[in-house]
Amino acid sequence: MGINKQWVLLVAGLALLQGCASTNRDAIPVTEAGRPVEASGRIPTQTTSNTTAQPKYTQPSAPVQDSGVVVMVPQGNNPPLQVGSAAANAGISVNPPPVWNTPSAITTTPTIPPSAPTMPTAPARPLDTASVLAADEQLDGPVLALLTTAQQLQGNGDLNGAASSLERAQRIAPREPQVLYRLALIRLNQGDAAQAEQLSRRALSYAAGRPALQAGLWDLIAQAREKQGDPAGAAQARQRAKVSL
Amino acid sequence: MTHPKRRTGGIRWWLSGLFKLFLVALVALGALAVYLDEQIQERFSGRRWAIPAKVYARPLELFAGQKLSQQDFLTELDALGYRREKTLNGPGEVVINGNQVELHTRGFQFFEGTEPSLRLKLRFSGNYLSHLTDHQGKDLAVARLDPLTIGGIYPAHNEDRILINIDQTPAYLIETLVAVEDRDFFEHFGVSPKGIVRALWVNTSSGKLVQGGSTLTQQLVKNFYLSNERTLSRKLTEAMMAVLLEVHYSKREILEGYFNEVFMGQDGNRAIHGFGLASHYFFNIPLAELKLHQIALLVGMVKGPTYYNPRRNPERALQRRNLVLDLLAEQKIVTLEQAEQAKQQPLGVTRSGSLANTSFPAFLDLVKRQLRQDYREEDLTEEGLRVFTSFDPLLQIKAEQSVTEVLGRFKWKGHEELEGAMAVTNPETGEVLALVGGREAGFAGFNRALDAVRPIGSLVKPAIFLTALEQPNRYSLTTALPDQAFSIKDGTGQLWQPQNYDRREHGSVYLYKALANSYNLSTAKMGLDLGVPNVLKTIKRLGVDRDWPAYPSVLLGAGALTPMEVTSMYQTLANGGFNTQPRGIRSVLTARSEPLKRYPFQVEQRFDAGAVYLTQYAMQRVMTEGTARAAYNRLPRNLTLAGKTGTTNDSRDSWFAGFSQDLLAVVWLGRDDNGKTPLTGGTGALPVWVEFMRKANPLPLSTPMPDNIVEAWIDPQTGLSTTADCPNAQKIPYIRGSEPMFGGCGPVYDTAPSTAPSAPGDDPIQDWLKEWTQQQQ
Question: For residue B114, which residues of chain A lie inside 8 Å, CB to CB?
Fold first, then answer.
């Protein structure tokens, strides 16, 4: 025995040590969880833009109408109206500013499909129909696309993401009251009734000639005031909502 | 198996002693291994690096109908490092064909989602982007570029890096690194005796130090865990740790660690670490877009980042790069042809590190101040936060150019001492778009836009007029004000005797004209009638958080504000009476792009929209016929603008604050030592502002008329209401019920057409009126 036995011991000892130190490589969860996502924020690029690489913000595959957008009046008993957005020119400008919908841009304006086809059965109030983008105004191109994105994010419960998307729309069309209206709705959902009212008021200053939207905004103000403990103010706003229509 | 007992006791004793010693050493080694192992795992599996926060400019939005000139668009693409090519082959490339631009965007992770990498076709027409489609020609509603990185939040001395993912490395990068630094990387177990031998052989036979003996794993271990000392024990620890690292982690993980850790250069106090940042720092493009010759340069630099710095030692760097390319060909990683082609390329490094912290120091300063209110310093310098801002580099460049150009025109004695500051916002969103902190905008230092507190002079006046116009039963735009000398005791018991700039009295003037011409006497008198405390309240409601004593001198602008505070004040005027605090940050994401915080748009109605509408009207008259009428020498007449000049005693401060529909800009000029200048607001700050507006091509101001506003035809001779066909009638807005009584049509004047070319458009009556009003000054 002697040497051989010692060698066996040695080998066994080494094996033991090795067993302690080594582990199955594949079984270690190390960097899967800890792997830093690239800090620059760049995402894997797609070199070929096939159909799977469609942008998030394309227009919804909605029934496209030839001209304008049908106004969906909340009561549902009025005939659909055609509404323009001429109000913006009521100011004192010498020239109306060039707006983002140049003639060369999108000529047809798609409506956004109601996600719930049975919508009109409920006594329609803007907040109830918040999940359905009431396509009661002339929106097009980028703003419509971003509102749609916001709608989706809100549907997933991502109110901050939705607000972020709406602010993106606001930067593109700061005077589109529909954008401010949506933003106000989100604030109300987030519990910030004061901002909901302020945003609605800002929206109202851009909503001349758009009675349906005005009514919706006053209604929103009424709800915001109620939440702020101002029932009298709420009643007043409700009255304005009726007048607007 | 039998063993004859032939051994002597001596040998037996010796052997047994050796064995015991061996066991002790083994246990010690084992303990060391366990210790090192722990160290390795702790560092490698946890958060490996402290990453400074990165600050991004606004991403450029693209949509049909957007106000964006092709030139501006290409400027932005150049800043982002998009390469102009003949055909599109991948992200970060652009093809220009007349007014058509095709590009392959990079894609980016934003707060609310991922912007995919797309191939876009754009067409420009005039100053507008007229068409936006995908590569198949299908209309695209909206897309956005990746945002420009404008800086980071660094501690005094630090390492900076952009983490990369091994899956996103460009072709040849891994092969090149392995070929140059460690040929057996994929075969060895952490240390490579073969590699050492080969390195010795190559180095001695070529006579140059081409290859090092340590493996990539060893190099990573050395940088990662160990000090720089060169001792045998350190070398042994390094080898042991390298083996342990290989036991635990895959080759790709080790490579990824290497790519992120390796030191690539020094940028002032900032150490450039990792290939991700090096790619941006030297080539201004993301790592994934590197081409063979660029890869060869970066890999070649690993051996001596300072020695082979391509900016400081271009020839050495070129030699080293070509050596690397030869090696690649030799090892059949690329063909000889490829290597030759790559060797023909210039180094292609940008002139200076484009991520340098110094490019836009004033705006970055604003961002940092906001961040420091909300985050701990170590979170900002270590957590790799991603900060999205509203900064518009295109407007910033225009603002800087405007300051430089106009200041460069001054030739009077001491003009070199003149300093300037400028703030630009979008009044409708409240976002800060550009900030200039001094005439040398690129140099960090005293940020005058945020820190120069200077008397605002007549910039205070709109607050007085707004206070008045909020009381329609007392004041309208055509209320007659006496512009006569007077004196009163001020708060300190001294006599206060305001004077007009021209040292003359102007008799009875219309309220709007008092503002347009910045008459001090009539304005101060009205302010006193309103009550100084009430005017101060208005200033607070406009968004200025200062406690000024209620002295009459405040009415003429003795109170001091920073340009940014003036911006806040004027934003409420520009935004229909809705206050919005200027915001520079939009949102903050974690290093892993998880939403952390948003800085949302917030408004608060502070004033009746009608009263603000009237104030804006008077401020428009400042531009058309008042102290800022020189603006229209350089700007188109049909561009409706509103603003106010400000000049302080002895022309120590020259101010202009004004806005279009989409841009509000405040300009201050003066000396840091508060010395005299020969400038008024109209001759100093106004030209800067005008130059900026000319470059920025803003939308004309067009505030929607509030419900309580009516317009009436006014006979300027009588100040009474008249009919539209009255020859000299002027349309003036009023709060409903405050319009003057009907007074028929006043005395008829000779309506011979004016010869002055200064009138807007094709309205002879207005032309004549303008002529008439200008004669009154």
Answer: 43, 56
